[in-house]
Amino acid sequence: MAGPETSAAKQAAARVIEGVWRIESARIIGALARMLRNVGLAEELAQDALVSALERWPEAGIPDNPAAWLMTVAKNRALDHLRHATLQRNKEPELTYEIETLLQDAAPDLDAALDDDIGDDLLRLMFIACHPVLSTEARVALTLRLLGGLTTDEIAHAFLVSEATVAQRIVRAKRALAEAKVPFEVPRASQLVARLASVLQVIYLIYNEGYSASAGSDWMRPRLCDEALRLGRILAGLLPDEPEVHGLVALMEIQSSRARARIGARGEPVLLLDQDRGRWDQLLIRRGLAALERAGQLGEYGPYAVQAAIAACHARALTPEQTDWQRIAALYDALAQLMPSPVVELNRAVVLGMAYGPALGLELVDALIASDALRNYHLLPSVRGDLLARLGRMEEARAEFEQAAALTNNLRERALLLARAHGCGAEAGQGDAAGAAGAG
Length: 440
Fold this sequence. Notes:
It comes from Massilia aquatica. The protein is mainly alpha-helical.
């Protein structure tokens, strides 16, 4: 029977292993995928190394270099697999050459090997996980699994789907990559822009789900924001001359600066104009502005950099009244040209309503309703309700907020919208009473 000391050693080892795995798993999987040309197999063998650590470290003690230990065991497993596979093919002459080459890759100086090609391996892994041959959902799940080190349970919890659903997405994604014979490489220059767009989209989707959770009882899921920002920073280091990479990082840094102010004491959402700007993280703002400046130095603003410039306008305003709404409106005009979409038009309506009056904003929103482009999008009636309230049309505003509340799947947001509907109803009732008293 294990004593208290043994139990404590196991717990300590488990904490170290978890921390090392979070940091190093993508590097290990990337190195194995380079050797094996098979992402699914690379992850399995990396997991085998993790299991070995869980079995050995509590008894033998934590090694001086845990990351190097895991990499050594994982690469040895990969070499054993290649030996076995090559023997099965009965190609003895090829075996000697292949194994000697791979042994050189794995040794002798493992500390140096940890650094060799690490950047390239991570970059290759990003492009594999975000390959266009996969569905968007599969790209997101595989990216969080391979590059974020999240378990299927953690991914499922973050996106409020079953663990089985996430597991199926990951398995199918690996199978699709194998069947398509996707090469483990960074795309050539002619393909880089298109493939990079897929990588950026996945990171952006992960971040957005963390920043404004689409469903559940939490307004934000900070873990997803942190993972997306970490991936963005890694990508900016690997592709330092790509302006849109820096644009996306700038956007995430500045948006993340508001995280503490976006949630009230009881977990309720706090809207932008109601936030305590003293709680905004100035370090993240400075980092975001520096990334935005870097994007501008490298070329013209793309969609992510334009959105970051919009966020920067808010970040520079010490009070809501100091916000340069006309500048933001001009940036939204540019964004609509670069990335035309109904959602961009809805946000543009909000900004034009702030810059030039709610009547103009309402006119644009009504045009979106007429086009039926956002039929079940809860923010459409929410925006319309806000514009109507600013015009003093409280009963109409109340109905819009109630409709928005019925459409959202996020419980925190629903409560906020219902509270706004109740407030509009109360103001409308006061207005009716005042009108009746004046008439009498």
